[in-house]
Design brief:
Helices cover 49% and strands 19% of the residues. The protein is built from 13 helices and 14 strands. It has a 5-stranded antiparallel sheet with strand order 2-1-5-4-3, with helices on both faces. The protein has a 5-stranded mixed sheet with strand order 10-11-12-14-13, with helices on one face. α1 crosses α7, α10 runs antiparallel to α11 and α10 packs across α12. The C terminus is likely disordered.
């Protein structure tokens, strides 16, 4: 658990820091949202204020026509409009005008009025199937766009006609749905809208259900109108889209340049509805890059960095403390292990010395019983002691790595035969041996090699020795085959060859004790006049040694 403590500290402190940072971030986001909503509301207010001013101008114009009983000369109207400074103060308001409302078939009267006003013949247009006409007879300020609209019958177009009919029914200012103004005579066109207010004869009006003599109206280019609201007195850091959403419809009036790109990637959106002379507009705003301050999230950044550093520092301190405690525990474990290993080593050394002494005494007694002279005893006993010494020396030189079977076997064969062993006489995979197996197999190989040299005719003409082994049972057992080949007339084929008669010498008993008793294995022998075969099988897991 202690190894994960620094990570837990880092995660705990980091989680607290993350939660705090998220709270601060959301607070800053809320503040940014509130700031953007204030800007969007200011934009909507600008648009609404410009519309209110324009509608006030329209009502004033209606009052002007009313006092003149609907008969205003062009010169008087020019003077009136010039005083309003429309082109300087009312961007987007294309013009103020008057449309004469009359039954179809009386176009000659309005055409005469147009000719009196503008000194040239202007026809009422276009042709219509309606029983009423609303022909434009005055439109100022005079410019090439407004000139193109003179004589136009607005009642002939459905959207304009619907707005005028509503104005007649309500007696109120009424805006049209988005339309294309007849003033759009250039290649760059904008959507537009018109606002109508009916003009009645003096003493009549909607209360009398009288028909108006005409309409005082204002024509707006929506693009210019919105740009003026967004750019003056300063450029707002947002883009807007305005749609006419009356009666569930949604028709585009205006959207800022780049609106589609900005809306696809914006963080903030504000939508407002405003009433426009009987209609409803929906204005949607999104922020631009100019809205964002590069340092707007500095609190979040600083707080997040502080908590990250704090988490890392506390985790590092916890890690250092855990390492110190772990080092102390390791020292304690190593000390205890060293004491245990020392006791085990002393016990094992004592045990091995006792076993070696017992083995030496047994070899001494048996060698003495089987030796006819002191010289025979000395030679046999010394050879067997040398085999034990070789095995012990192999264990010592191997260090911490277990000795190899082939190394042990070649050492014993070389001690007995010298360099007279053929290259292919020893063959088998690498097998690591334990301490007990090294001692037991070392004596076994020595006895077998000595018998082969003395009695098997291996070193004579036509004689050979072949030792091979393999691992069986998934590597748990070692299977070794010792084969001596000799001439059939070998005269000295004793004493192991004679074992077929049932007599066993000390060497045979020593081999059996090493393989069967010490290693828990089996040994099989087969002899003929020309061949001796010895098959040894032992488990590689050493049997537990008795203590003491």
């Amino acid at each position: 658990m202690s190894r994960y403590f620094p990570l837990l500290v880092f995660l705990l402190v980091g989680s607290i820091g993350l939660a705090t940072t998220i709270v601060v971030y959301r607070a800053e986001e809320a503040a940014e949202q509130a700031r953007f909503e204030a800007l969007a509301d200011d934009t909507v207010d600008r648009i609404g204020e410009r519309l209110r001013r324009s509608l006030a101008l329209l009502r004033a114009t209606n009052a002007y026509f009313t006092t003149s009983r609907g008969s205003v000369s062009r010169q008087d109207f020019i003077s009136y409009v010039d005083g309003l400074e429309i082109e300087q103060r009312f961007d987007g308001l294309q013009g103020l005008g008057f449309a004469r409302f009359l039954p179809a078939g009386q176009e000659r009267d309005v055409e005469a009025e147009l000719e009196r006003n503008y000194d040239w013949a202007i026809k009422a247009w276009p042709e219509t199937d309606q029983d009423r006409r609303a022909v434009i007879v005055l439109l100022e300020p005079h410019n090439f766009r407004n000139e193109a609209a003179l004589g136009y019958d607005m009642f002939s177009e459905p959207l304009r006609r619907r707005a005028m009919q509503t104005a007649i029914e309500t007696g109120q200012d009424t805006a049209s749905a988005p339309v294309s103004l007849v003033q759009e005579v250039t290649s760059v066109k904008q959507a537009g809208f018109l606002v109508y207010t009916p003009l009645y004869r003096s003493g009549t009006g909607i209360a009398y259900r009288a028909e108006p003599i005409g309409f005082v109206y204002a024509a707006f280019r929506a693009g210019d109108f919105h740009q003026a609201a967004l750019e003056r007195p300063d450029q707002l850091p947002l883009v807007v889209e305005t749609r006419d959403t009356t009666d569930g419809q949604s028709e585009l009036l205006f959207h800022s340049e780049g609106y589609d790109e900005m809306s696809a990637s914006s963080s903030f959106t504000v939508e407002r509805k405003i009433p426009i002379a009987g209609r409803s507009w929906t204005i949607t705003a999104h922020e631009t890059q100019a809205f964002f301050d590069a340092s707007r999230y500095w609190r979040t950044t600083v707080l997040g960095a502080i908590f990250l550093l704090l988490s890392a520092a506390l985790a590092a301190v916890a890690r250092l403390q855990a390492r110190a405690m772990e080092a102390a525990r390791e020292i304690q474990v190593l000390t205890e292990k060293a004491v245990e290993e020392k006791d085990l080593l002393l016990h094992e050394t004592k045990h091995r010395i006792k076993n070696s002494i017992t083995r030496i005494l047994a070899m001494a007694r048996q060698t003495a019983l089987n030796s006819e002279t002191l010289e025979d005893f000395s030679r046999s006993f010394e050879a067997r002691m040398q085999a034990m010494a070789n095995a012990q020396d192999l264990l010592t030189r191997s260090g911490h790595r277990n000795p190899d079977l082939e190394t042990l076997l070649r050492g014993e064969l070389q001690q007995v035969f010298g360099d007279h062993i053929a290259d292919g006489a020893v063959d088998g995979p690498a097998v690591e041996l334990g301490d007990t197996a090294i001692q037991a197999l070392g004596l076994t190989f020595h006895e077998l090699a000595t018998n082969a040299l003395k009695y098997g005719g291996v070193s004579g003409p036509g004689g050979s020795l072949k030792v091979s082994w393999e691992l069986i049972n998934d590597g748990d057992h070692l299977s070794l085959e010792w084969i001596e080949e000799r001439p059939e007339a070998a005269p000295d084929a004793e004493p192991d060859v004679a074992e077929s008669t049932g007599r066993k010498g000390f060497g045979t008993r020593l081999i059996d004790a090493s393989i069967k008793l010490e290693l828990g294995g089996t040994i099989e022998r087969a002899f003929s006049a020309s061949r001796s075969r010895i098959f040894i099988s032992i488990p590689l897991a050493e049997p537990a040694e008795e203590a003491g």
